[in-house]
């Protein structure tokens, strides 16, 4: 198939962001939709977990790590940096890594 | 549908001292930022994709609220007096802590809401925030020259209409109650709700005319 399945409605902005990331990485040629379906299947442990966007996120992180394009450690470090940046960002202003006091 | 969602829980962050991202927001941001840095994704391409799908958000619950206010003067009064309480009558909103304030457009006054930069944007009510809303120039320009910003969205108001700009805070989120469009006297509440766009509830747009509604 050449396109991903139609997305269900998004329940929150981060879900739309996750969907866009996966489609964008596919469009960049990093994986085929067949490979994506395999990654989703593996992350769901054979359908044990529902295929929601939390699963999409886990699957894409796993797929990228498996190809050596990023690592769990790098992502964890980046999350911590954003958490620090958010805490240091006045309400209503864009949260960017430039605001990370630990950088 | 989204009311009991696992999403951002905390609405009590103090806007004087900082912002907060939910665990899922942090996770997506971290991934995106690493991928952008490595050149695997282009932020502009992501925004374009999201714009394509931004209508695919759960029901724009706010549209139901607006339509009810148009047909039921009692509800309208309660909505303007206490937005959160009136919305609960329709099972809209529902997450604790936040307080929705509804501001009403009139021929004399048009309202425009800014600030959707963090979890304060009331997406269960309004749907996904528009991508352009994230841009710092929009926010500052909306305050300085709201009429010019509105014109860029194709919303041209009479010179005699004042424009008030509302900046959400950690405690207060705003929704605009637009004016009911002319020529809608015969429409029922559900058809009226179809006229209410997200942009009309933010104040960057006006409700659709009945002949602008595309039935899917």
Indicate the topology:
The complex is a heterodimer of chains A (103) and B (216).
Chain A: H1 13-27, H2 33-43, H3 53-66, H4 72-87
Helix pairs in contact in A: 1-3, 2-3
Chain B: H1 23-37, H2 43-53, H3 61-71, H4 73-81, H5 83-89, E1 99-104, E2 109-114, H6 123-126, H7 136-144, H8 146-152, E3 162-167, E4 172-177, H9 189-193, H10 198-202
Parallel strand pairs in B: 1-4, 2-3
Helix pairs in contact in B: 3-4, 4-5, 7-8
- Order of helical and strand elements of chain B: HHHHHEEHHHEEHH
Overall mean pLDDT of chain A:
83
CATH architecture of the largest domain in chain B: Alpha-Beta Complex
Task: Give the end-to-end Cα distance of chain A, rounded to a whole number of Å.
Answer: 43 Å
Report the biggest beta sheet of chain A as strand number plus sense, adding barrel if it closes: none
Q: What profile does the largest beta sheet of chain B have? A: 2 strands, parallel
Major β-sheet strand ordering of chain B: 1-4
The total domain count of chain B is: 2
Strand content of chain B: 5-15%
- Overall structural domain count of chain A: 2
Rg calc of chain A: 16 Å
Instruction: Give the class-level CATH name of the largest domain in chain B.
Output: Alpha Beta
Keywords:
heterodimer; A: 103 residues; mainly alpha; 2 domains; 4 helices; B: 216 residues; alpha/beta; Nitrile Hydratase, Chain A; two-stranded parallel sheet; two-stranded parallel ribbon; 11% strand; disordered N terminus; metal-binding (chain B); lyase (chain B); Nitrile_hydratase_asu (chain B); CN_Hdrtase_asu/SCN_Hdrlase_gsu (chain B)
Structure in a nutshell:
By secondary structure, chain A is an all-alpha fold. In chain A, 54% of the residues lie in helices and 0% in strands.
